[in-house]
Amino acid sequence: MASFILNNPTYVGVHSASEVGKQAGTSETTVIRFCYTIGLNGYAQLQKELTMYLFENNTNSTLGNYVSSKEELFKEQQLCEKVMGQTSNQIVRIAKQVNPKQFHNTTKKLHEAKRIYIIGSGASSFAAQWFQFTLNMLRPNVELVQTETGMLIRTLQEVEESELAIVISLHRYYKEPIQIAEEFLRRGVYTVAITDSNVAPIHAFANESFVLQQPELSTIDMMPALIAFLNTLVVGMMSNDQDYYNEQRVKYDDFQNSFIANRWS
Asked: Per the database record, which ranges form the SIS domain (predicted)?
């Protein structure tokens, strides 16, 4: 049990004692008994301790990797060109990882979905906000999932199978978005994960996943490529019905211009 936890701390942090026991080749009872044996109050405390450990260590490794990977660039004469060139190469490299059939399927679902829910926490929240802002200008019924308990319960009560959830889960893999994704999936909502690892815990709770892998473990470095990928999803969605999205653009621009004129007149 100890070996499994040491080798799979992220998995243990976001899965039940029963699921962990099954993966470790033992039982839920043994998992809980193990927690008591090492002086914890129960499985919930083990998860809390692991979450804090992962947060503290992954924050350091992410920021540390970001800084260390840039140190050799500090004396570059063409610093701007070099850094932006690396970002450009990263975007091209990630684009080559995307399965065209899977991409087409997801963008078609983005177009057809009655409602789209977008989920992201921590570093992922910035990308989630950008994605919601952009989609909301082009089509109705796009929601950034609020994690405040009352609002979240209301959202989960109202979801339908004709809707779509996009979950952005990057390194550190916050527990909350994973749990929300599990609830969406359980309610029949088609759930698409965007992550940075083939072993990220979000895979277990998604109908399909896009894995944007990079050599360095840094969510900071990942952000430009992630936004580029989300932008590409938006373009792919619009390609399903050009006339409709042109119409949506005109309506948005007309209302925005009218609103600004009335506000400042």
From this structure: 106-243
